Amino acid sequence: MLFVVRHGRTAANASGLLLGRLDPDLDELGVRQATAAAAALGSVDRVVSSPLLRTRHTAEAFGLEVEVDDRW
Description:
The protein has 72 residues and is mostly helical. 36% of the residues lie in helices and 8% in strands. It has a two-stranded parallel sheet.
């Protein structure tokens, strides 16, 4: 089964901005969202992320080594 998870919130997202390839980190709520997503999905075998900081930090919540794929 494949799960696609959006990154947690950033301060810019909270302001209504969509950032594309800009690279802000998660805010406090975003960290909690990433943790909650990982808990809700449970055990996974593999985690793949784009190289953006917010996506890598969301992926790290799953507790596995994150495979970074520049194509994302």
